[in-house]
Amino acid sequence: MTLPRTDLGPERETRVRAPGKVNLGLRVGAREPDGYHPLVTVFQAVSVYEDVVATPAEGFSLTVSGPQADLVPTDGSNLALRAARALAEYAGIDDGVHLHIDKAVPVAGGMAGGSADAAAALLACDAFWGAGLTREQLHDLAAELGSDVPFGLMGHTAVGTGRGDVLTPALSRGEYHWAFAVRDAGLSTARVYTAFDELAGAGSPGPDSDLELLHALSAGDAHALGRALRNDLQLAALELAPDLAETLAVAQDAGALGVVVSGSGPTVAALGRSRQHAHAIAAALTAAGVADTVLTATGPVPGARVLTSS
Ligand code: C5P
User: Fold this and answer.
1) Is 164 in the pocket of ligand 1 (CB under 6 A)?
2) What residue owns the CA closest to ligand 1's atom 8?
3) Rounded to the nearest whole angstrom, what is the distance from the C-alpha of residue 4 to the centroid of ligand 1?
4) pLDDT of residue 11
């Protein structure tokens, strides 16, 4: 499908926003023959956002802005560009697109920033080209791009199984307030899983469900949620970045209801009693010098959504 030339004016623009996430629970089983680990995870989308803007272009190109923009690859390996190409191929679109990413989610931080970019790029290209894919088609493309990309589309709160890509929405009441301690030096997801294998060995437990956590969410009980936070990858992340222990301790000393490494790390997520308390934890993390950047955010928030399209 080739769009009529009149539709390719420079004023056309589609802007999509997608959230980062925190894994409230992450239970990981032993590596399977396909190289992946089965997991049961509870995702919460948080108000740290990636904006992806699609504009007309001959081929496929990408620019990035934001505090860690220089850490993002802009070549063909970029997940948002791969998402655009995958959607074009799937929908039989012959046109190109330029994507601009305005990044706020930490790079390689365990908050699924790259996955949010890909989710936003899928939705942006779908709207930009008028491809009209269904939610299910977008989800399937997302799952091929990466384990966390489907949740970037869905947002809110969800239980992820399989590789984290098989999603069931979960009931969640209330608003949760977070402080995030971010490191400039990210951790590779693949390396963290390898460290997990070495630590857990053959005795690695199979994933089970996070009932306590789900009860806390459905009751809107932040204290119970804080107690139930759990991440099986945390020891592996600490093995690769031992000084994260101090970050965890500072957040705990600041009275966080719960502290956990987010996903494969190294971002540390600390749950506050209130928005003010999350800000106080953030201030303590900054004062202790245990993070390169400190963010505060609330969750849950919606998944990728079109902000404007012309
Ligand atoms: O799916 P994604 O590309 O985000 O995964 C990156 C790497 O993390 C994979 O290549 C794999 O080594 C590891 N991984 C895993 N088990 C999962 C998800 C990711 O071992 N459930």
Assistant:
1) yes
2) 190
3) 40
4) 73
70 classed as catalytic: no
Q: Residues near 135 by Cβ (< 8 Å), separated by ≥ 6?
A: 153
Distance 141 CA to ligand 1 centre (A): 16
Peptide linkage before 205 cis (omega within 30 of 0): no
Domain count, the chain: 2
Structural domain for 238, as ranges: 176-299
* Residue closest by Cα to atom 21 of ligand 1: 163
- The two beta strands, 305-309 and 268-272, are unpaired
Alpha helices (runs of H) in the chain, residue ranges in sequence order: 79-91, 113-129, 135-145, 149-154, 189-200, 211-219, 222-228, 234-240, 244-253, 275-288
Successive 10-residue mean pLDDT values, the chain, 310 residues? 51 95 95 93 98 97 96 95 98 97 95 97 98 97 97 98 94 98 93 93 60 96 97 96 97 98 96 98 98 97 96
Closest CA to ligand 1's atom 20: 36
- Please work out whether the CB of residue 41 comes within 6 Å of at least one atom of ligand 1: no
At residue 5, the pLDDT reads 46
Choose, from 51, 117, 126, 148, the residue flagged as catalytic: 148
Question: Does a structural domain hold residue 143?
Answer: yes
Q: How much is the pLDDT for 207?
A: 55
To the query of whether residue 103 is one of the catalytic residues in this protein, the response is no
Both 107 and 253 in a single domain?
Answer: no
- Taking the whole predicted model, whether its pTM rises above 0.90 is answered as yes
Return the pLDDT at 283. Answer: 98
Same-domain check for residues 214 and 138: no
